[in-house]
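I'll show one example:
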Amino acid sequence: MIRRFYYMLPPSFRLLVRRAVFLPVDLYNGISGKKENLVPPRGMIYTGSGDYVKTGNLFLKFFIEHCNLMPNHRVLDIGSGIGRIARPLTSYLLPDGSYEGFDLVDSGVSWCKKNISKQFPNFNFQKVNLYNDLYTSKGEKAEKFVFPYNDEEFDLVFLVSVFTHMLPDEVDNYMKEIHRVLKKGGKCLATFFVINDDSLSLSKGNKFRFDKCFGNYYLMDEKVQSANVAFKEDFIVDKLIADNSLSLNKIIYGYWASGNVSDKISFQDVVIIEK
């Protein structure tokens, strides 16, 4: 009920509501000195409800273990948010490595430029003007968007909680662009809500489930379609990945369907792709 009411609000107002809700906590942390370095105020964090620091650290571990990330690599963070994944990378990437990130929420990009790029000049953030009914009210359509980078520029591309807020044509275009900007042999890590027999069965009795099927994808809320989007596994593998000249490396299933929280895996399903 609360989630439904929240999604009824205009995108800009949702961010204001979050700032207001967490204002007492943020004021206390600021006064008490409990605020960690490179961690934004809780009211500014719009990239999910998980622990900001733990989530970032977990994905750095995934990059190293499953994507062979090296300290001198060049990486692209699609949907860089407010620095959740960039933060742990600042302690891993060397000066001859580099990070590029883009996002459609101005407050996140501005915070990252002010707090991360000033300390780490090899970390660059930029705002893109894209429409997404969860975050923005206007902008370019994602299914036509061309990434502002050169061909074969990156060793690793990653998208954490991005495809879970996009529709099929948008994801398909992003996959084409990922293939274009990845170096040969490069990896892509993308999180999805993967629909298969197991996830449908496990999530049947949960509050967090996808009841509205539209062929190859599922929605949680029809009014704000980008709020939560899930895709059938065979559609991800055969259409989104293979048809864009990429190949599946592995899927590390998350715990969203079962509800069995673990600090070893992500809430969302992690799909490792290679060129």
